[in-house]
Amino acid sequence: MTPEREKDILGRLAEGVLNYDEEMVRQAAQEALDEGMDANKAVFDGLVAGMKEAGDLYEKQEYFVPELLMCADALYAGLEILRPHMKSTKEDGGVKGQVVMGVVQGDVHDIGKNLVKIMFEAAGFEVHDLGKDVPLEKFVEEQLKTDSEIVALSAMMTTTMVGMKDVIKAIKEKNPKAKIMIGGAPVTDEIADRFGADGYAKDASNALKEAINMIASLREL
Amino acid sequence: MSMKPRDRVLGLFEGKEVDRMACYSGMGNVTTAGLEQLGYKFAEVHTDPVKMANSAATSYKLFGYECAVVPYDMCVEAEALGCVMNAYEDVAHLLYPTIKEKLIHSPDEMTKVTIPDNIAGRGRFPLVMEAISLLKKDIGDEVAIGSWFLGPFTLAGQLMDLNDLFKLVFKKPNEVNILLDRLADLIITMAARYREAGADYITIREMGAPTDVLSPRSFRQVIKPHLEKIFKNIPSPKILHICGDTNLIIGLMNECGADAISVETKNDLAKSRATIGSEPLLFGHIDGYNVLCNGTPEDVEKAVLASIEGGVDAVWPSCDIWPTAPLENLRAMVDTVKKYGAEKWARKNR
Ligand code: B12
User: Fold this and answer.
1) Is this model's pTM higher than 0.80 or not?
2) Interface residues from chain B to A (CB-CB < 8 Å)
3) Domains and their CATH numbers in chain B
C-alpha cells in the first residue's frame, strides 16, 4: 500500500468517526482490510485518532454528549469489521484488559458511565457493561465470571455512592487481586480511599489513564 | 409589614409589592427529620396520598419553608403512560424511585405513544392530585402549594433509554418531535388538573437538557419549541428549572415563556444577569447536597448570601433538597433569607 493510500484510508476512518458517519467508517475499514493494512494500525491510527479528536471537541464544548455517543457508534461500526483481524497481544496494543462496569443500585445516572465505557473500548479494553441500577451482588458475580482485572463503579448521588463501599468489600473478599476504581460527580479521592477503592478519576480520560496504570501494576507483580 | 409566605411567594408573580424575597422551592424538599417525626419511610410516601401530603407539610412546620411541594419522584407521568416504577421498598437506605420497565424499546415505537383520554385517572396522577388537595386544606392558607412536571425531553428519557434518545435527536428528528409534542400536550392537560386540585404554581423541570449533556444548538432546535408551547398553554405562575450547566442556554431558557427561571449552583448568576438583564425573575441556586447536607450553618449562610447577591428573586435549592439535610442547615437557609432578603434584594432596591 502506498503511503498516500494509507493516509487516505486512515484519514477517512478518523473523519468518519469524528463526523459520526458510520457508512464512511465501514467502507474505509473494509478497504483497509482488502488492501492489507494492519488492522491494529487501522484501529489505533484511524478510528481511535478520530475518537480522540471528538473528545477534544467535547472538552471545548463544541461537541456534547449526543455527538460523542454517535462518534462512538461510528467507532463501533469500524471495530466490528476490524476487530476479528486484530492481533490481541498486549505488546501490540490489542486487548489491554477486561473491565466490569456499571452504575450502582438505585442510581440511573448513566451518561457519565457511558462516556467512560467509550474511552475504555476505544483504547482496547474489553468492557462488560452491567448498565445502571445494578444490584451489588451483580458486580461480584460478573467479576468472578469474567475474571476481569478491573471493576469500575459509577454513582451520581450520595446515597447510592455509599453502596459502593459494600461492593468493594464484597469483591475484595472474593478476589483480593481485582482492582476497583470508582467515579461520578459526588466521588472524591478521599472517598475512594475511605471506601477502600484502588483508584478514582474525575473524568473519562483520567479514568482511562488510571486503568492503564492499574493494569501495568498488575502485570508487574 | 409582615406577610404570609403564600402572599410573598405569589405576590411577586402578580407584580405586587412584597416585604422580602421568599425562601422556597418548586421541587421536592421533604427531609428525613420530617419523615421520622411522622414515623414514615421514604419508600412508602410515594404511593399514599395522606403520607405524601403530611410529609410535604413538614418542611413548613419544621423550618418555616414557604411552600409545600409534591410529588418527590420523577416517575409519575411515565407510569401514567404505562411504565413500571421501583420504589426500592426493601432497600434499607434512602433511594429515589426509578423506572424499571420502559415503554419505548425501538425508534419506531416513539410515534406510537399516544396520550389516553383518561390520562388524569391513570397511574398515580389521582394520588398526586389528592395529595395536592390535602395540602391545600392543611396549610394552603399559609404557604404556597407547588407541584411539578418533567419537561417533555426529560420525560421522554424516562419512557425510553435517554442515551438512545440523544442519538435519535440527530438521526430521527421528526419522530422525536412528534413524541415530544404529545408529551407537551400531556403536561398541559395535567397542569390544568393540578391547578384545579389546588396547586398554586407549577414548575417544569427539564433536567435532561443542561449543557453538561446537550448543545445550545440542540436546545434551541429540540427542547425550546416544546417548552414554549407548554408555557403558552399553562396558567401562571409557571417556572422553568434546569439543573447542571445553564450559562450557555440561559438566554434561550428566558425566551421559553415561563414567569421565572430557576438554575442550580453551577450557574454563574452574574453572567446570567448580564445575558438576560435585571427584569426576568431568576431563582436559585443553593446546592441541595454539598451545602445543605454536608455544609455547616455558616456554609449555608454564605451560599444564601451568594445567591442573593448574585441577583436572585427567590432563594431556591439547585434541585430536590437532599432529604438527609440537617434541620439546623435548613433553618439557617430560611433565617438568612429573612435577614437579608429585603435589604440585599436588587429588585427591591432599584
Ligand atoms: C441528567 C441528570 C439526570 C437524568 C439522568 C439521565 C441518565 N440516563 O443518566 C435524570 C433526569 C433521569 C435524573 C434523575 C434524577 N436526578 Co439527576 N441529574 C442530572 C444532571 C443534570 C447531569 C448529570 C450528567 O449526566 N452529567 C454529565 C456527565 C457526562 O457527567 P458525570 O456523570 O459527572 O460523569 C463524568 C465523571 O463524573 C466521570 N465518571 C462518571 N462515572 C464514572 C465512573 C468511574 C469508574 C470513573 C473513574 C469516572 C466516572 O466521568 C464522566 C465523564 O467525564 C445532574 C446535575 C449535575 N450538576 O451533575 C443531576 C443530579 C445528579 N441529579 C440529582 C437528583 C437528585 C436526581 C433525582 C433523585 C431526582 C428525583 N427527584 O427523582 C433522579 C434520580 C433517580 C434515581 N434513583 O436515580 C442530583 C443528585 C444530588 C446528590 N445527592 O448527589 C443532581 C446532582 C442535581 C442537583 N443539582 O442536585 N437526573
Assistant:
1) yes
2) 86, 88, 91, 93-96, 98-100, 162-163, 166-167, 169-171, 211-215, 218, 248, 289, 293, 322, 324
3) 5-340 (3.20.20.210)
